[in-house]
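If you are new to this repository, start here. Below is one unmodified record pulled from the training split, so you can see the exact layout before writing a loader.
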Amino acid sequence: MDFSPYKALLNRLIPLSYQQDTETLLAGLLPDADAQTRYQLAAEINRLKAPCLRVLDLQQLFPEQCRQVFHRGLNHMLPPKLEQRFMQLLGQYNGDYTRGLYETLLADLAAMRKQPALFNATPWHQPGFGTRRKEPRVQFVTPAELHLEDGHIQVNTLDISVSGIMLTVPPGLILPQKVSVSFPALAELPEFACLAEPKCFQLTQLPVSAKEQEKTQRQERAALQRIEPDSAWQEALSLFIEQNRARYGQNAEDLYSTALAQCWGQTLLESGLGQSLFFDEQGELQEILCNRFGKKLLEYWCHEQAGDLLPVLLPPERILAMAARQHEPVFLYGFKLKGKKDSYYFAAEQSQLLQKQLLQQFICEGQRAGTLQLYHLSIRPVLFTDQITENLDLLGKERLSPLKWQLWLTPLPAPEPRTLLPANGRLLLPWLLTSPAKQITPVLLRQSPARKETRFRFETPVELLLDDKPLHGASEDISVAGMKLMLPQPVELTLPATVHISLPELNKLSPDWNLKKLPYRVVNISQGGKVMHLHAIQGAKGHGGSRFFSALLNQNQDKLRARAEGSQQPAWMRWLIRQALQQLSGPAFLLGRNDGGFYVQGSLASPVRQRLMTMLTDDKRLAQLGLLITRQLLQSMASALQRPDGKSHLVTELWITEKADQTSLLQVNPAAEQQQQLMAGQDRVTVCLAAVNRLQLRQLTLNVPEWNQLAEVSLYKTQLLEQNLAELALQCQIFNITDLARARVQLNGPAAAPAPPQD
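And here is the target side for that same chain:
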């Protein structure tokens, strides 16, 4: 039934129904209505008066305005307007938090979001790291006893891990830096009796933002870390967490923040300007993490014949020289000159060209050839501290172990001199690149499955013969050409290796097939040696196992459950992605758009660019894009990207002049004369480049491992994340190009360096 015609009447009836009978009220106010209508209206009133248990947490939409609203055991996070409305509705609903109150607040929220949105500030996110906790934990409430000098105090736990706990403490209680803790309730169980003996813990700071820390202090929480080693406690807590992890082990808030940051980082990698490259200790190029835009970037450096010019563009000596001065970004110029018989490639750093006074000549030659390219290079050492390295298989470790340096290669708009110097390519011979090097295969963000044929989940005993010693295991999935084998104990093998397996149970059921000592090649080992990935070795008459499984699958496909054949992301691939995100060449912003306009959804930090981070951070240490880009400028850039001219990115220069004891002066794309005046002045000038590109959700296929875990733990958080991603509209990357702008001003200035003498 459509209740919209009776909406005003229902709002009047609900407060009255707490004092009078609903049927009597309906009969008096709707004497002409039939019995069915009055019955449905009464049922709707009872539904709206039913208790509601859904928590209203609007921190993602209103990060700065939200504050805690506690009501009968539920902690809501609401902005002041909705908090006032919440209190008003409580009076109408007899002080109860009901479904009607919840739905009314959602309707008010929808109306608020249609109003002009603030260009809001958000916390800086570190997208490369996983969950904040590096060890398993459970959200479990149990009594804990604090042994203080003046007596014992009993408190409750909020979550428990092997090396730490979080407690709720009485208001006003100040804990010492070191305190002894025991678990009297858990110690009553036989296997946890050792937890009755107090152990020393140390008070620690919670790894949260300033806003969350203020909220935590209001709730009187304390985080403790165990500093007294004890093997019995270690085993007891590990056993307790393992027993309760299935029910209490996942924290929806941690998973939500991790999945959200990973989705933002994945969006940046897939549609950003930059390309992430990895080098070994000798400076040799090993891996290229390729995104959508990188296809054009890589095609330029793909030689007409065999080979790839990227290792020549970035030779080992250049990489090692950059590694010695990591804090300085490098601007690299390059162009291709077509000759009568062959093409010639030139590349040089801006600092080298300035030192030789050949920058203008290099740019003129590149502009004359029509192929001038400019790149922003940022290099950092590879960090092997990510927890995902523990999950790497044998092939992943072999592939990633040589990596030493990670570099972002970002194309920038090439400068255009006002006047071209006479052609003289011989002056650029020192920067002529040598012949192409070996072929480099880019790593695509979307990996295809290793086994092309359909795999089926099938578990059967398997006997593995390794060095004439039998090992017993079980299959997890099978296909015509391969098998995934689970072993009870880890094994060590040097890949590639050949093993022989037997299928005892299947051999009994199918005596006509010889399923003993089937030759398989071990193509990979994962999970510390407990999982083997096998591929059948085809003989002259065909592999016995392949022929048997082909017949088995043809007759029983309807009984077996096929594994999903979608794109998969191996552990080494996830490590490359997170490693690239840990070393961003500049901060980035993800912006959403709704009926109220643009708003900042997420802010990805770049720890290696502290000056940029400081410039984009407000007094509360929150990321604030509005300090650099106005809403009007952003709207004009978004409108320009909507034009059908094929542009995927739009760049804008922002010149910031900092004067002593005065507010900064911001100018957008100043004219050449203004640039010269700003650079010639005494004030400090910083030039930023904002690269904005338009995002469409249908172009983004996010592959985040934490997503499935979040869907299992909290459907509400998953729906909220899906809504945020559906509103993604723009992405903005910020680069500091002050050195580039200064060199360009000198290039076109009235007192430019004299042209080199002609040869």
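Two things worth knowing about this chain: Confidence is low (pLDDT under 50) at residues 207-219, 751-759. The CA atoms of residues 592 and 728 lie 4 Å apart.
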